[in-house]
Design goal:
The structure is a single chain. The protein is an alpha/beta fold. The radius of gyration is 24 Å and the shape is elongated. About 45% of the residues lie in helices and about 15% in strands. The longest helix has 17 residues. The protein is built from twelve helices and twelve strands. It folds into three domains: about 40 residues, no CATH class; about 130 residues, Response regulator (Rossmann fold, 3-Layer(aba) Sandwich); about 130 residues, Rossmann fold, CATH 3.40.50. One of its GO terms (molecular function) is DNA binding.
Length: about 350
């Protein structure tokens, strides 16, 4: 090996991860005594010395937080950002915001750009295209604070602030069932995203609990924020021999597209078809009838994510253990499911 021994050199020789080596050298309680001894013995044998320049950079702060969201246009993410800023500015931190535009490549580029500009850490909601999380793993290995919000990565040991999307999806469908609906369609998003998959599973679980058979024709991909495709899809569902009498959409934009298609056919909402969305966008209370929805409390999620980030970055304890916080959701009932 070269004279300048690094943590990666030790990790490679012991066939363990660099983050494990780093934690072992810091005497982290999650690392076994056997591993700690192996790491420290090899480090001594190879005359490993911590990179003093890297350490000084890590300890210096710019009081800037990087935020990466999938899309600015999404009302939910704007409320999350407001919550983050509410806490960050009070503590003397500035924020830099970028959008991945649901692109993996752009997410990687944004991550590296922000780190190169020496943000103190990142708050991230991953893109729908992201399958490889190595760019975030690098941050963890370099001890750069990282908090996922809404869309998290279960493969990495990192701070996360989420909602229980399964329970929320179940709650939405259970509400439709409580109004007498039995032929309930689900207009779902990208099932590669945990949030969409969990809402879909909640839909299936609610049907099963109440003895309602699952109809494959009633479950259809509707895109993420695509109003026109939601209308087109809803029209196809309305053309079925047995049309739905209830619709659970994975977000409010898709729900509104479904409502437009239903209203254009002079079908009564909620008497003939009930509709419920997700996220409780501002327009949900303004449309006619008002759109029932699941409120995600984006502002509260943003506050929690910022506090978790600041707790991590300001905590001098090297044995800091990442956490997951679950923000409760709320069923907001309006005229699209209950006659008002």
């Amino acid at each position: 090996m070269s004279a300048q021994i690094t943590i990666k050199d030790i990790a490679k020789e012991l066939e363990i991860s660099p983050s494990t080596v780093s934690r072992a050298l810091k005497d982290h309680p999650d690392i076994s005594p056997k591993t700690k001894k192996a790491v420290n013995d090899l480090a001594e044998k190879l005359h490993y010395q911590p990179n003093s320049i890297a350490l000084s950079l890590r300890k210096s702060k710019t009081n800037t937080i990087g935020i990466i969201i999938p899309e600015f246009v999404h009302f939910f993410f704007s409320t999350v950002i407001s919550g983050i800023e509410d806490v960050a500015y009070e503590k003397g931190y500035n924020v830099i915001i970028s959008q991945s535009n649901e692109s993996y490549e752009r997410e990687v580029s944004d991550t590296r750009s922000m780190v190169s500009h020496r943000v103190d850490g990142l708050l991230v909601s991953v893109s729908k295209e992201t399958r490889d999380f190595s760019h975030f793993k690098e941050l963890i290995e370099r001890d750069i604070p990282l908090v996922f919000f809404d869309r998290m990565c279960s493969e990495l040991n990192a701070n996360s602030v989420v909602i229980d999307d399964f329970e929320a999806g179940f709650k939405a469908v259970e509400h439709l069932i409580s109004t007498g609906k039995k032929n309930i369609a689900h207009l779902y998003g990208d099932l590669n995203l945990h949030i969409c998959k969990n809402r879909y599973d909640g839909y299936r679980a609610a049907l099963e609990k109440y003895g309602i058979p699952f109809n494959e024709d009633f479950a259809a991909y509707a895109g993420m924020l695509e109003l026109d495709s939601a209308k087109e899809l809803m029209n196809r569902l309305l053309d079925l021999p047995q049309r739905p009498d209830g619709v659970f959409a994975h977000n409010d934009v898709v729900a509104y597209g479904a409502m437009q298609a239903i209203k254009e056919r002079n079908i009564k909402i909620p008497e003939e078809i009930g509709v419920i969305g997700f996220s409780d966008w501002q327009f949900s209370s303004l449309v006619e009838p008002g759109l029932s929805s699941i409120s995600q409390s984006g502002f509260e999620m943003g506050q929690a994510a910022a506090r978790m980030f600041l707790d991590q970055i300001e905590n001098e304890d090297e044995n800091y253990v990442p956490q997951t916080k679950v923000i409760p959701t709320k069923l907001v009932v309006r005229g699209s499911t209950v006659k008002q």
